Structure to design on (451 residues):
């Protein structure tokens, strides 16, 4: 398997070459030269680890240590059960796929725990080091830091929007004391953080000198790992391989739902990918009208992990819409906004507000006795709006409600249950550095602290 850049100006590379790189040298995102097709019949009976090995081998065929990394990653100890992603049936044809049972209680663990093992293995093989630069709107940062903390030859520099995450999310990151973890609170929005990552990566000499890598979903390994749970959810919700299923996906950066698009390209019978946004509805507008119009700053909401107005992974999907014309894509994304004829086949989209998610949390708890977090509530609300008779609906859970106590308290009048080990999280000492949205400031910190 070889990978090409969405901007069309970087040479094709094997997976082991792009794993540590993040953005391509031309500023694009890596995608496979072609999507592999696989047999559903051969996969249906596999457990999560075996399923992951089969699917990931299609994308990572030059990583001989992959089977062992998968075995060490997807364990009951890491994800609370042998199922890894258990399916909860609320009523016939309406399910929630449990993706938040990892170390940081968010779906990002499923990819980032794997990525930690891949990085460590490849760095050891190459006898080199890596400085990871990432941006987070809430959950990616803690999942990445928990996956990378204490690992040899890896330092993490994580940008987060100062004051815009929940207290639980902040404490998960800032309370880590490992010397290789550096939390940088940016005076701005997540979009500012994401722009800073791109600006630092655009400085090729600096990137090369300090071995800058990525853990955000710009890294293809993240997407590949997320493809696995679409197959697992499909097999759990159906009895045969002829049944179509729709997935409702809360998504701000388009990475989570893009993994579903990849799964469909590989042959998974997905009828519709239902994209749910919060008040930051740039993606909803794009799929409704074909107009991509970043707002110049994300609005702070009660589903903060989706407070994003510029979706990085949309570039990968637009690349396909443009029939893989990298030059045309580059011209398009140089504009502040653009319009593009969007095929609605296979996609639906909707918007959820604070009032909607409060009502959805109450309704799901009242009817089914299940507490969901505000992002999952966005997905459930929009998913039910687009539910079709006879087509199973699988809503992707994104996080555990304990991470968003204020919203759960407003919806249900009580705090959510705290998983063991997190009882005193917000009271632990926190270590972070506040800085302006300035790429120079980020570079100075990396130069001072890089491993």
């Amino acid at each position: 398997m070889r990978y090409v850049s969405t901007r069309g100006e970087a040479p094709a590379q094997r997976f082991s070459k792009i794993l540590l790189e993040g953005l391509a040298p031309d500023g694009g995102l890596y995608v496979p030269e072609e999507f592999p097709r696989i047999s559903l019949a051969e996969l249906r009976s596999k457990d999560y680890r075996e399923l992951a090995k089969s699917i990931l081998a299609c994308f990572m065929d030059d990583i001989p240590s992959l089977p062992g990394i998968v075995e060490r990653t997807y364990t009951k100890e890491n994800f609370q059960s042998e199922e890894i992603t258990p399916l909860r049936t609320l009523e016939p044809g309406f399910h929630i796929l449990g993706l938040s049972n990892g170390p940081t209680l968010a779906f990002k663990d499923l990819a980032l725990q794997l990525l930690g093992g891949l990085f460590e293995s490849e760095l050891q093989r190459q006898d080199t080091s890596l400085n990871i630069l990432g941006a987070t709107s809430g959950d990616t940062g803690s999942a990445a830091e928990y996956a990378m903390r204490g690992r040899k030859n890896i330092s993490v520099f994580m940008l987060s929007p100062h004051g815009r995450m929940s207290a639980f999310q902040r404490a998960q990151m800032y309370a880590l004391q490992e010397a290789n973890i550096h939390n940088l609170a940016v005076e701005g929005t997540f979009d500012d953080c994401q722009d800073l990552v791109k600006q630092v990566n655009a400085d090729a000499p600096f990137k090369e000198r300090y071995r800058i890598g990525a853990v955000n979903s710009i890294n293809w390994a993240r997407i590949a790992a997320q493809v696995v749970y679409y197959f697992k959810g499909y097999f759990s919700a159906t009895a045969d391989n002829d049944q179509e299923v729709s997935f409702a996906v809360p998504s701000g950066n388009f990475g989570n739902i893009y993994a579903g698009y990849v799964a469909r390209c590989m042959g998974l019978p997905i009828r519709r990918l239902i994209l749910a946004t919060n008040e930051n509805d740039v993606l909803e507008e794009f799929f409704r009208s074909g107009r991509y119009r970043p707002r110049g700053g994300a609005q702070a909401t009660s589903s903060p992990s989706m407070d994003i107005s510029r979706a990085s992974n949309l570039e990968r999907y637009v690349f396909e819409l443009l029939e893989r014309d990298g030059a045309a894509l580059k011209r398009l994304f140089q504009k502040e906004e653009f319009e593009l004829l969007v095929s609605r086949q296979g996609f639906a989209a909707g918007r959820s507000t604070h009032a909607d998610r409060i009502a959805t949390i109450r309704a799901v708890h009242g009817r089914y006795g299940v507490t969901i977090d505000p992002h999952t509530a966005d997905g459930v609300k929009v998913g039910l709006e687009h539910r079709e008779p006879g087509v199973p609906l699988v809503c992707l859970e994104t996080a555990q409600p304990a991470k968003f106590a204020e919203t759960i308290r407003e919806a249900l009048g009580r705090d959510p249950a705290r998983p063991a080990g997190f009882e005193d999280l917000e009271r632990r000492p926190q270590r972070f550095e506040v800085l302006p949205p300035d790429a120079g400031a980020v570079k100075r910190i990396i130069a001072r602290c890089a491993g």
Summary: The CA atoms of residues 171 and 427 lie 8 Å apart.
